[in-house]
DNA sequence: TTGTAGGCGTTATCAT
DNA sequence: ATGATAACGCCTACAA
C-alpha cells in the first residue's frame, strides 16, 4: 500500500510537506504543491483515513443512529433514503460513517453508549426517529459530549442542531387543499403518536386551519398504525366530510375502511412514500425529500464539528397527488 | 478519554501486558489477568477501535456494497434488512463496518475502487445485488485483493464465498404447491432479468417441475418490473392455468392484470416481502430471511479474513402464504 | 517555505 | 510470564 512516505520520497520533499499539500495548508509554494500533486497522481495515492482519524481528533467519525421503532414497510423506505442520503453526502465531505440501529443500543445506559461511541472515535451523530420517551438519547444529546444533528425533534443547544421541514405549515397546506377542493366542513383528523414531536406540530397546523376556515374537527391518535387508522375511520368516518391523516400508512388504513363502508370521503396523507402507489387510489400528501434532508443534516453536522453552534434548519416540502402511474416502473 | 496506558498504570503492569489480556493471548498468568480486568472495569475502559485497526491489519474493516439498481419499494425493504442484519452481526463480532451504495462507485475503475477501499483499511467486502453485467465488481472479486462474500451470485474462489438460498429448489417448491393445489397444466412463468444469476437458477427449478409434472410452460422475462409483469399477464394470461413469478413485485403486477381482466388464476411470488400485504390478496411465496442471510455472510467473511478459503453457503427458506392480516400492525 | 520530531492508541516483536 | 520498544500512517507544533 502506497503511503504518504512514498509520495514524499517520490516528490523529493518531507512527509509533513505532503501532508500540508493534502490538507490545503497555507504557506506552501505553488511549485512544491504541483510537485506533490503530480506524485500523488502517479502513485495513485489515497490517504489512509483510519490513520488520519487516529492522528487528529479534529476530523472525527460520524455515527448514524437509526432509531427504528416500527416494523412496517413504509418506515423501511424512509430509513433507506435517510441512510443513503447521509452516507453519500459524507463521502463527498470525506467523513467516515458508521451506522447503528436502535437494537444495538437498546437497554444500554448513556455512559455505556458514550464510551462505545468514544471508543469508535465518533465526534458527531445524526439521530433519526427520536421520540420524547427516548430518555437515553436525550441524555446523550444534552450531555453535549458529541456534536449532534437531530431529525425532526426540536432540540437545539450549543452543539445540537435540528433539521426538519415545517410540519405545522405542511399539514396545514395539504389539509387545506384537500378540504377546499372538496368543500368539506367536518374533519376527522387521525394524528400520530401521543407525545410525538412531529405529531404535535402537525396537530397545531390543523388547529390553525380549523380556526381559519371555521371547521369542526375530531382528533384521534392513530399511533401511525394502519390498523388503528382503519378502526378510527370505521368508527367516526361516516358523519365526517374528510379524513386527514398524519401519515401515508394511516391514510391507507383510512381508505381501506372507507372502501369497506362503501362511502367516499377525501383522504390525505403525509410523507409521500412510494408504497402509496400500491393501494391503487389517489390522495394528496406531503412529499419530503428524505435523502436530501439527511444530506443536509450531514452538512450541518460538519459545520458543528468545525466549531459552529447549533441551529434550527428548515427544509422545503412539496404537496403531491400520488397515484398508481407515478410509481410504476 | 481513558486509554490502555491508564489501565496499565492503574493495574501496575506494562501496556503490552494489558493488550495481551484484552486480546486473549496465551502466556498470561491468571493473577495478572484478573488484575487487569479489574482495572478495565473500574476505569470503564473500551479499546479504541481506530487505533487497533491502524496498528494491526489483522482486524480489517468491512465494507457493505449495496448495488441497488431499482428504485422500487420492495427493494428498499430487502436492502434495509440486509443492512441491519450485517451491521448487527458485525458489532457482535467486533468488526468495523462502512456502507457504500452503488451510486458512490458507479463509473469508477477497479483500480480507483480498490484504492479507495484500501485507503479505508477495508479487508473484507460483502456485495449485494451483483448482476452478470457488473464488470467492475467482477474484476474486484477476481482480483482477490479483498476477502469477499457475495450474496446470490455463484462466485467462489480462494478468497470469495457465496451465501444464498437454493433458488432452484425454492422456485420448484413454491410453484409445485401452487400448481398442484389448483390442478394446473398450462403455466405462464414470468422470469426476472435476462442473464441474472438468480433468474437462471429459478428458471431451472421451473424446468425440472415442468418435466416432472408433464406441464407446458411459457417463459417471459419481466425484468422484476411490476408493469412488465402486468403487461405479460394481460397478453398471455388468459389461456394459462397459473402465473408463476420470480418476484413478489411481479406477482403483484400479475394479480392486478388478472383483476383487470376479471378472471381468476392462481399466482405465486418470490421473496416474502411485507409489501405483499398491501395488495389485499393472498398468494404463495418463498420467504427468505434477509437479515439472517447477511448476518451469515458477515460470519463467513470473518472466517475468510481469518485465513479460511471460499465456499458456497446455503441458507434455508420457507414457503408462505401471505395475506393482509399477517402484516397489519 | 520546508523539514524535524513527537504523538495519537494499539499491536507485535523481542529481550528479559 | 512480563515489559520495553518499534511500528502502523498521518498530523502538527516548532525549528531551521
Arrangement of strands in the largest sheet of chain A:
2-1-3-4-5-11
Secondary structure: number of strands of chain A:
12
How would you describe the shape of chain A?
elongated
Distance between the termini of chain A: 44 Å
Q: Provide the structure class of chain A.
A: alpha/beta
Q: Kindly provide the radius of gyration of chain A, computed on alpha-carbon positions and rounded to a whole number of angstroms.
A: 25 Å
CATH architecture of the largest domain in chain A: 3-Layer(aba) Sandwich
Give the CATH topology of the largest domain in chain A: Rossmann fold
CATH superfamily of the largest domain in chain A: Response regulator
Number of distinct helices of chain A = 14
Largest interface: A-B, 55 and 55 residues
User: What oligomeric arrangement do these chains adopt?
Assistant: homodimer
Low-confidence stretches of chain A: 324-329
Helices, strands, pairings?
2 copies of one chain form a homodimer.
Chain A lengths: L3 H8 L3 H8 L7 H14 L5 H7 L5 E6 L6 H20 L4 E5 H4 L4 H10 L2 E7 L6 H9 L3 E5 L8 E6 L1 H16 L3 E6 L5 H17 L2 E6 L4 H11 L5 E4 L2 H14 L5 E2 L14 E5 L2 H16 L6 E4 L2 E5 L1 H4 L2
Parallel strand pairs in A: 1-2, 1-3, 3-4, 4-5, 5-11, 6-7, 6-8, 8-9
Antiparallel strand pairs in A: 10-12
Helix pairs in contact in A: 1-2, 1-3, 2-3, 5-13, 9-10, 11-12
Chain A binds a DNA duplex (16 and 16 nucleotides) through helix 2 and helix 4.
Amino acid at each position: 500500500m502506497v503511503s504518504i512516505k512514498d509520495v514524499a520520497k517520490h516528490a523529493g520533499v518531507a512527509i509533513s510537506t505532503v501532508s500540508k499539500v493534502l490538507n490545503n495548508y497555507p504557506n506552501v509554494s505553488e511549485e512544491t504543491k504541483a510537485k506533490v500533486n503530480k506524485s500523488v497522481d502517479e502513485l495513485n495515492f489515497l490517504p489512509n483515513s483510519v490513520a488520519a482519524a487516529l492522528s487528529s481528533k479534529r476530523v472525527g467519525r460520524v455515527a448514524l443512529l437509526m432509531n427504528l421503532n416500527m416494523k412496517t414497510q413504509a418506515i423501511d423506505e424512509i430509513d433507506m433514503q435517510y441512510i443513503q442520503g447521509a452516507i453519500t453526502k459524507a463521502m463527498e465531505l470525506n467523513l467516515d460513517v458508521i451506522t447503528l440501529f436502535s437494537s444495538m443500543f437498546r437497554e444500554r445506559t448513556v455512559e455505556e453508549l458514550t464510551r462505545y461511541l468514544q471508543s469508535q472515535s465518533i465526534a458527531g451523530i445524526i439521530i433519526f426517529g427520536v421520540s420524547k420517551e427516548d430518555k437515553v438519547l436525550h441524555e446523550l444529546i444534552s450531555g453535549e459530549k458529541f456534536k449532534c444533528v437531530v431529525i425532526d425533534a426540536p432540540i437545539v443547544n450549543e452543539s445540537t442542531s435540528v433539521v426538519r421541514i415545517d410540519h405545522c405549515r405542511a399539514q396545514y397546506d395539504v389539509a387545506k387543499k384537500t378540504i377546499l377542493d372538496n368543500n368539506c366542513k367536518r374533519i376527522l383528523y387521525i394524528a400520530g403518536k401521543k407525545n410525538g414531536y412531529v405529531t404535535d406540530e402537525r396537530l397545531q397546523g390543523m388547529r390553525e386551519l380549523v380556526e381559519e376556515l371555521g371547521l369542526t374537527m375530531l382528533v384521534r391518535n392513530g399511533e401511525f398504525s394502519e390498523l388503528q387508522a382503519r378502526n378510527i375511520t370505521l368508527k367516526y368516518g361516516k358523519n365526517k366530510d374528510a379524513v386527514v391523516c398524519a401519515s401515508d400508512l394511516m391514510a391507507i388504513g383510512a381508505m381501506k375502511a372507507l372502501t369497506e363502508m362503501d362511502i367516499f370521503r377525501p383522504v390525505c396523507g403525509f410523507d409521500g412514500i412510494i408504497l402509496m402507489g400500491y393501494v391503487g387510489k389517489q390522495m394528496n400528501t406531503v412529499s419530503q425529500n428524505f435523502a436530501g434532508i439527511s444530506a443536509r443534516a450531514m452538512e450541518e453536522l460538519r459545520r458543528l464539528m468545525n466549531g459552529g453552534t447549533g441551529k434550527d434548519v428548515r427544509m422545503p416540502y412539496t404537496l403531491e397527488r400520488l397515484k398508481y402511474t407515478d410509481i410504476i416502473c
